[in-house]
């Protein structure tokens, strides 16, 4: 229900949470049946969800997950959008994206620290540690992409975010993620250049189509300092608006000539990536932001598409080696005071972590809650279990007014196989090995997470990823304390061993430091 809160979901009326057509339930009848089943569920029963439809309740045991979810999984030879859409049309499947179908999406905040960390690392590597005095160009200000304006201004920079749907920009402005809306490229450039020259942070949402606007920027001789993209290019039928096409025209084509829409969307992506490559050649720092646009462009004949590096190998992987990733929690009370107290607690637990202190300070000032008050911060192996126990103690002591739900994105250290994104360019070439996320889901189930999910196709689309999610509830009981200790150890532990197994020294060190047993690890 929180996933579908109107403040949280992009299109709640059609059960779409974010990321193209990422849904929380297959249809409204399934939604109602899920709610009924959960209300009747005993504490030793487990509800099974198959692509957004509740299909069974089995007797398990108290420490087992209350819900197990499998979303959008297809046998590999059938794992493409065409087959998926066919099943979707026949009411047999649903696209779960990552946290949409696994019920732990918390609005744009869920991604904003990851986006902030990515731009911060980009600033460290290329701009002396700050984005002040730089202009970033991106596209797509949807559920996740909408975090980009705030992440860039938090790093002191200026952003132009090209977005085809005006209402998306208006939503980002209403939720304080974006500063201003511009109707024309000229207006956006004037605002951006003035702010850059004054050293001021500013985000501008520009109404337009990236496949048209980026070439226009080049034609005018404008080259940004950084260029990236977060349109829903992973889904050419529903997520990428072709050049020269209005939203209404796209809706008509989607219903009547879907193949024509896909063809035009892919052609637009090729033009878009060509423009990104040209900006890169002219000196911009370019990176792919996890929507598989390079693959689509490559398929369309843009041979150099992968000259644009992916953001994980470029900026994030060292964090994964330490089991760090987007840990998040939501206050079931609905009371922002509960999050304020957990903010204090995490700061006290880790007094020497400067990055964490800077992040929580900024998040408190700048992030407006959407739906249930919630927080995200990147924590590593050891830290997550410590903080989870602390939250449970606080619930037990009555310092928090209701239980806290603890979860994470599927984009995490040990829970995803996605060769064009999280596992791009692995040291040992194991990019496409999907045993790891499956082991992650099995292990978190064994450890007693409250709900566990295994999905296909999130982030980068059908055929390109397999990933797992987990959520564990801190209700203040001693049993929850044990479950939290176990799950918040196994889950980031998978990230450490996955990267250690691939040969990353930092992960090997982390495993040794924490005494993680690896039977064939370096002695
Ligand atoms: P979304 O569907 O909510 O938003 C996509 C936005 O792109 C929409 O608002 C749409 O109007 C806009 N758009 C589509 N075509 C356009 C065009 N040609 N020009 C300008 N705007 C256009 O999706 P989201 O949740 O914001 O996710 C965006 C993409 O980023 C997805 O592919 C998703 O898988 C990926 N993603 C990346 C990360 C990450 O950490 N890098 C995390 C989550 C999602």
UniProtKB/TrEMBL annotation:
Residues 318-512 form the Urocanase C-terminal domain. Pathway: Amino-acid degradation; L-histidine degradation into L-glutamate; N-formimidoyl-L-glutamate from L-histidine: step 2/3. NAD(+) binds at residues 19-20, 97, 143-145, 163, 168, 209-210, 230-234, 240-241, 289, 459. One of its GO terms (molecular function) is urocanate hydratase activity. Keywords: Cytoplasm, Histidine metabolism, Lyase, NAD. One of its GO terms (biological process) is L-histidine catabolic process to glutamate and formate. The active site is at residue 377. It comes from the Bacteria. GO terms for cellular component: cytoplasm. Its main location: cytoplasm. Its cofactor is NAD(+). It is found in: Cytoplasm. It catalyses: 4-imidazolone-5-propanoate = trans-urocanate + H2O. Residues 107-315 form the Urocanase Rossmann-like domain. Residues 1-104 form the Urocanase N-terminal domain. Binds 1 NAD(+) per subunit. Its EC number is 4.2.1.49. PANTHER family: UROCANATE HYDRATASE (PTHR12216). HAMAP family: HutU (MF_00577). Catalyzes the conversion of urocanate to 4-imidazolone-5-propionate. Belongs to the urocanase family. This is Urocanate hydratase. The lineage of its organism: Bacteria, Bacillati, Bacillota, Bacilli, Bacillales.
